[in-house]
Fold these 2 entries.
Entry 1:
Amino acid sequence: MYRKTHQTIQEWYQQSGRLDLPWRNTDEAYYIYLSEVMLQQTQVKTVLERYYIPFIERFPSLKSLGEAPLDDVLKMWEGLGYYNRAKNLHKTATLVDELPSDIEELIKLPGIGKNTAHAVAAFAFHQPVPIMEANVKRILCRLHQLIKPTEKRLWEIAYDLVDKVNPFDYNQAMMDIGATICLPRNPKCEICPLSDICKGKEEPERYPEKKKRMVPTREQNILIRIYEDKLSLTQREGKFLHGLWGFESVKIPECASEYLGEVTHVYTHFKLNCKVYLYYEHTPEHSDYFSVDEIQKLAISKVDEKIVKLFLATM
C-alpha cells in the first residue's frame, strides 16, 4: 500500500538524512540503546558533542557499565539531567550482559519503555517495527489530521505505515523528517517527502493540539555547612536527582549563618530559586565533608555546581 511512499522516504534519507551519526553506523545493541536513552529529553547536538563518545570510552560494553560504581556513571552523566536515565541504564547493565532482541523482554528491563524497546529492536536487530518519539508523533498526527490522538491510535497508524523491508532507514528517516522538515512551527511542507499522503498539509500547525504548560517556581534555602575548610554534602534520596551529591536544603537557616546570594536553575517542569547561606561549624555535625577540589570529582547537579561557584566567588 505504501510502496511508493517507502521508496520516496528511502531516497530522501540517502540524500538528506543524518547518515553520519555514530549510533546509526553500528550494529552494537548497547551503543544504540545508550544513544536512545541519552536522546530522551536531550538534543542530538548536545549528546553528540559532549556525552556519547566519552561515555562509551569510559564504559565500552554493557558488562563494563554494570561493573562500574553508580557514582562513576552519574559523574559521566553529569549535565545531561534526568538522572534516573543513568540509574536505570546502570541497573539494566547489572542485570544483563547483552540486550535481548524481543520487545517484551526489553520492556521488562529498568527504564526501557515501549518506544525505547521498539527503537532497539528496529535499529539493533532490524525488526520490522516502528518507533514513536515526539517528532514521529507529530508527523503521524499531520498525516491523519489528528488533533487529540490516543497512544493506541498512533501505534496502530505507525505499524500500518512502517517499511517492513527496511525498518532501520525508514525509522531514522521519520525522525529526521520530523526534526528538519515537519517542524512544530513553520514546517517545510513544500519539500516534505510525505507530502503526497499528508492530509494535514494545508494547516499543519493545527495537528496535534498544543498543550499549554505552566512552569511553577519553587523556592529553597540552601545551607552550606563548612568545617575546617571542607563543605558538607549529602547523597540525595528520592526520585529527583537520586544518587547525586548536593548541599542541604533547610526550612530555616541556622541563626549564625551568612547569606551568600541566590542561584536559579530552570528544569523542564519547574524553575528553582535557591537562597544560599553559609554556616561555620565548630564541630562536625554531618558525616561527609569535602574540599572544593574533591567536590569537582563528585557527581553533582547543575544547581549545586552554581552554588559552588557562588561560594568561591564570595570567599
Note: The first strand starts at residue 217 and ends at 227.
Entry 2:
Amino acid sequence: MAREVTQEAFAADWADGALVVDVREPDEYTAGHVPGARLMPLRTVPARCAELPAGRPVYVICASGNRSRTAADWMTSRGIDAYSVTGGTRGWARGGRPVTAGAPEHSA
C-alpha cells in the first residue's frame, strides 16, 4: 500500500527540490499544476515507471489523491520510493500554494 504524505510535509520537500510526478490527464495538468511537476498520466505509469530514479523519493500527485495512491502503489511495488500527496493539487491550491498553468515542459 502506498505511503501518503501531508500537504505540509510535501510543501517542505517541494521547496527543497523534490521530484513531483502529476498523474492527471494532460488537460488537467495544463489547467493548473504544482510548479515543476512532471506529467505522467496514470494510464502510462506501468509502461513508464522505469523512467523514474531509484533511491530518490518521488511525490505523486493528482487532483484529490485517488489516482496518486494507485500510481504510488504501482511505483512502490516496482521498488520506487513513492509517496501519494494527500489532498492532491486541489488541496495544494486551497492551501494558497503556487499553481502554474500551461503545457508540460517535460514529462517524467
Note: The chain is about 35% helix and 15% strand.
